[in-house]
Amino acid sequence: MALLPIVTLPDQRLRDPSAAVGHVDSSIRTLMDDMLATMYDAPGIGLAAIQVGIAKRVVVMDVGKKRGEEEEEVKDPVFLVNPEIIRASEETSVYEEGCLSIPDFYAEVERPARVLVRYLDRMGVRRELEADGLLATCIQHEIDHLNGVLFIDHISRLKRERVIKRFIKERRREA
Ligand code: NI
């Protein structure tokens, strides 16, 4: 498994919509494995392919799962190809979100509290997943990436422009 470089703000590729995957083959599975390794290494809880510069509708996530009450967290990876939200609750919830493409910036975002998602799994099998809590928020955040949308698009314009400016400045300083 390879660690892939993560695309960060203000890279315009983050604004590109990603293309649907026609067939879940071994190259897609290799991409997902590399994305998962990259996500765990970062560390993060979700990663969309465009965040490693590949404009395909592929997402990996692991919001963690506790086994027993005092036991350690176990790995619980989720692989989504061509995910689509087919139902979202009226009820909303608020989570503080972050993004591996916008390092060290966090903000509260309000989204539907529960979603029903249709997707292809790692083997290309069509499945549905009903999610709530952090998983529901994470799925919506990652599907946004596939449409060129970032979580900062859900906060005030003032705050968004401020964080974008900060990243443009940092990029200039590095250059
Ligand atoms: Ni993100």
Structural domain count: 1
Strand pairing plus helix content: what structural class?
alpha+beta
Ligand inventory reads: nickel (II) ion
Largest sheet: 5 strands, antiparallel
Please give the radius of gyration in angstroms. Answer: 16 Å
Commentary on this structure:
The protein is an alpha+beta fold and 175 residues long. It has one domain (12-174): Peptide Deformylase (Alpha-Beta Complex), CATH 3.90.45. Helices cover 27% and strands 31% of the residues. It has three helices and nine strands. The protein has helices at residues 26-41, 133-146, 157-174, and strands at residues 46-48, 58-61, 65-66, 73-74, 78-88, 92-99, 102-112, 114-120, 126-132. The strands form three sheets. The protein has a five-stranded antiparallel sheet. Strands 3-4 form a two-stranded antiparallel ribbon. The relative contact order is 0.18. The model has no long low-confidence stretch (mean pLDDT 95). Bound molecules: nickel (II) ion.
In short:
The protein has three helices and nine strands; from the N terminus they run αβββββββββαα.
Essential attributes:
five-stranded antiparallel sheet, 3 helices, alpha+beta, 175 residues, Peptide Deformylase, binds nickel (II) ion, two-stranded antiparallel ribbon
Q: What is this structure's SSE topology?
A:
Elements (H helix, E strand, L loop, with lengths): L25 H16 L4 E3 L9 E4 L3 E2 L6 E2 L3 E11 L3 E8 L2 E11 L1 E7 L5 E7 H14 L10 H18 L1
Antiparallel strand pairs: 1-2, 2-5, 3-4, 5-8, 6-7, 8-9
The structure holds nickel (II) ion.
The site of nickel (II) ion has 5 residues, from helix 2.
